[in-house]
Specification:
Protein name: CidA/LrgA family protein
Structural class: mainly alpha
Keywords: Cell membrane, Membrane, Transmembrane, Transmembrane helix
Radius of gyration: 19 Å
Subcellular location: Cell membrane
Largest sheet: none
Number of helices: 7
Membrane topology: Multi-pass membrane protein
Number of strands: 0
Distance between the termini: 47 Å
Length: 119
Amino acid sequence: MGFVNGLLWLLGCQLVGEVISHALGLPIPGSVIGMVLLFGVLLVRKPEVDSGTLGAADGLLRHLQLLFIPAGVGVMVSFGELRADWLPIGGGLVLSWCIGLAVVAGLTTWVLRRQDPAR
């Protein structure tokens, strides 16, 4: 029963995020808002190692590759439209990857310096 409760927590946070996103008309996907809400819940309510939430998350992560199949099918179905705009799409992907890499590198450096000021 713990797995089901954990899955309900995960899906509940996603649902609340979707409701907030649509109700406020935010340009942020509801799943991202739900993930931030789940992070807050996990900070406040520290789960035990054998909790249902962690078990459900671990089960989903173990089969994460299956969750990418619908997205891959969607890309293949829309391949004709994507082919016409491959340059801006590719440029956006490369640029966003570079920005993400720079942000993660900066945050990692900042965290390591806070942990060990001698660095």
